[in-house]
Structures are given as structure tokens and as C-alpha cells.
Design a protein that fits this description.
- The structure is a single chain.
- This protein is an alpha+beta fold and 235 residues long.
- The protein has one domain (17-187): Immunoglobulin-like, CATH 2.60.40.420.
- The chain has six helices and twelve strands.
- The chain has helices spanning 2-18, 142-150, 190-194, 197-206, 210-216, 220-234, and strands at 22-27, 40-41, 44-45, 52-57, 62-64, 67-69, 86-89, 99-104, 111-114, 129-132, 167-168, 181-183.
- The strands form three sheets. The protein has a five-stranded mixed beta sheet, with no helix packed on it. A four-stranded mixed beta sheet has the order 3-10-9-6, covered by helices on one side.
- The longest helix has 17 residues, at 2-18.
- It is globular and about 40 Å long.
- It starts with a helix and ends with a helix.
- The model is unreliable at 12-17 and 189-235 (pLDDT under 50).
- The chain binds copper (II) ion.
């Protein structure tokens, strides 16, 4: 009887593995330390076509993104790559945690991604990178990608799209409990982001530098940097 059960369980496990998977990935820390932890967990995994990767932004304070890049250029958004935008979890944390679902559309090539947050230091260079369907070792592996990332000093702040190369999302992260701010998302415009509470706060802090304030409206990078500063101040 026990042997029958064991064989039955093994068969079911094999069947489940063959079907589309749902893979849960933690974004940022799960600890109560200031600024969270700069990591994706797990940071390397395999996923077949149709599998959904659910990125769960930590309910703890922090500000992170999931942005597609390339092996040789780990901390720069890939042209035509996917992007979640930045999700800011305020001081005190929130529940439930915002989620972002990414569906694998081409499992024949490795997919690389990073977090493009710069505050308090670039998360990408700190090791906040991940791989999907990458070799387990050697060229193209997570370690290879991570080593490339650690040699960088900056992260690109360009905004990608929901539809990426080899994986796509159909919506921005959500749900967004009170206090959570989403900005620089493919689905949102700079105008609507600027009218959010974070945008207003960034605008206030920018008045000390009139030049920055006038540019902020038109330069997404400056807006993002200001918003990042505000998010850091909130941590
Ligand atoms: Cu991050």
C-alpha cells in the first residue's frame, strides 16, 4: 500500500511539473530592516512557456522594480524589455503586498532582469538581479550575470513596457493598498504620476532647487530620482 501511494505521489508530482507553473518570487526584504534587502528570492529558476511568475513586493518599506536587461549589460533596461515600474512601500509597511504577474512566452533563451532603484545605492550592483531559464553555471548563469552587475556603478532609469522579450505582463502591479505608490510604470504616464501624492511631495522638495523643479515636469529621469529620494526619506 505504501509503495502504491509513493508511486502515485511521484506520478502526480511529475504531471504537475509538466504543466504550466506558477512561481512565487519575493521582491526586496522580508525582514524589518531599513530599506529592506536588495534581492529577488529565488533569484534563478526555470519556467516553461505559459508559466506565470508572480513577483511579490515585500509588504515592508522599500522601493523596487523588476526590469528586463541583458547578460552583458545587467543594470540597463533592455530595449523592448519588460518593466514593472517602481513600487514604493511606505514606512510602516502594507498588507496585502502588491503583486506583478509575468508570463513566460519564450523559454528557449535565458531571460535576465534587475531592480533599477538607485537609493540608497544602486540595487543592481548590490546584487538585486535575477535569471529565468539561464544555465546553472558558466557563461550566462546567474553567477556570471551577478558578477557583471557587481562591476557596474549605475543603473539605467529608462522605462520599459509590459510586453518584453520572452516574457510579458498584462497589467501593472496591484493591488495597491493605501500608501503604496506606483510610478514609472508602462501603463502610467509621467503626468498622472506627477499628480500623485509622491509627485506632490517631490515637487515640494524640489522647490529649493527651482531649476530642478521646472525640469522635473519634462524630464522623467529627474522625476524618478526625486521620487526615489522621497521614498528614501520615507524609509
Ligand atoms: Cu530594489
Amino acid at each position: 500500500m505504501m509503495r502504491f501511494l509513493a508511486v502515485a505521489c511521484l506520478s502526480i508530482a511529475t504531471l504537475v511539473q509538466a504543466q504550466n507553473q506558477t512561481i512565487q518570487v519575493q521582491v526586496g526584504g522580508t525582514e524589518n530592516e531599513s530599506g529592506g534587502i536588495f534581492q529577488f528570492n529565488p533569484s534563478s529558476f526555470n519556467a516553461t512557456n505559459g508559466s506565470v511568475i508572480t513577483f511579490e513586493f515585500s509588504g515592508n518599506p522599500g522601493n523596487h522594480s523588476i526590469t528586463q536587461s541583458a547578460l552583458s549589460n545587467p543594470c540597463q533596461p533592455l530595449s523592448g524589455g519588460f518593466d514593472s515600474g517602481w513600487v514604493l512601500i511606505p514606512t510602516g509597511g502594507v498588507s496585502p503586498s502588491p503583486l506583478w504577474n509575468l508570463t513566460v512566452t519564450d523559454d528557449s533563451h535565458p531571460i535576465y532582469f534587475f531592480c533599477k532603484q538607485l537609493i540608497p545605492s544602486p540595487h543592481c550592483a548590490a546584487g538585486m538581479v535575477g535569471t529565468i531559464n539561464a544555465p546553472s553555471s558558466g557563461t550566462g548563469s546567474l553567477n556570471d550575470f551577478l558578477n557583471n552587475a557587481k562591476q557596474t556603478t549605475d543603473s539605467g532609469q529608462g522605462i520599459g513596457a509590459l510586453v518584453g522579450q520572452g516574457a510579458s505582463a498584462s497589467a501593472d502591479p496591484g493591488p495597491l493598498p493605501s500608501g503604496v505608490t506606483l510610478f514609472g510604470t508602462p501603463g502610467a504616464t509621467a503626468v498622472s504620476a506627477a499628480s500623485s501624492s509622491t509627485g506632490a511631495a517631490a515637487s515640494t522638495s524640489a522647490t529649493t532647487s527651482g531649476n530642478a523643479a521646472s525640469q522635473m515636469k519634462f524630464d522623467p529621469k529627474i522625476f524618478v530620482l526625486l521620487a526615489a529620494s522621497v521614498s528614501f526619506a520615507l524609509m
